[in-house]
Amino acid sequence: MYLLRNDQRVRLAICVGVPMIFGILSGLLNFWPIMSACRKLHKPPFTLPGILSILFWLVIYFAIGLASFLVLESHVYKEEKRIALLACACQLVLHSFWIFSFFHTRLTLLGALLHLIYTAAVGLNTLLYLKIDQRAGLLMFPCAAFCIYYTYLTLALIFVN
């Protein structure tokens, strides 16, 4: 069994905690606009129930944090780590911009464009993580899969409504 030193435990808590807190805050701040929009919009086929979506996102944020910890602890050049972790931070911010533009402002085409950029950022981040630590890259696959699913939902919502 792999035991962590105290300094590694702190880094693990930060790496997992930041995306989790970011995701929870993003969900709480956007809960009512999302719920309001979901009640008014016609949902496309294969739309998940809201509670399942929330649970999936929590697991994804945890996986992103764990993957970030693996990258941080890897034995590669500091610059490679910095670029990969910055890409991860950018993808989290892009996710928030997508939610805000799509649900708050109802600028659905801008939201769809932002979501496509977000999906590309997740893909890039997954490749960067795979290059640094294969386990970290594999942890990003659920996020990438869910991004593709949400790209479908975003585009389908535009066409159905």
What does this structure look like?
This protein is mainly alpha-helical and 161 residues long. The protein has helices at residues 6-40, 50-73, 78-104, 108-132, 134-160. α1 packs antiparallel against α2 and α2 runs antiparallel to α5 (134-160). It contains five helices and no strands. It has one domain: Ferritin.
Overall geometry comes to elongated
> What is the highest CATH level, the class?
Mainly Alpha
Count of individual beta strands: 0
* Share of residues in helices: over 70%
What's the quick description here?
With 161 residues, the chain is mostly helical.
Reconstruct the topology from this structure:
Blueprint (H helix, E strand, L loop, with lengths): L5 H35 L9 H24 L4 H27 L3 H25 L1 H27 L1
Helix pairs in contact: 1-2, 1-3, 2-3, 2-5, 3-4, 4-5
Keyword list:
mainly alpha, 161 residues, Ferritin
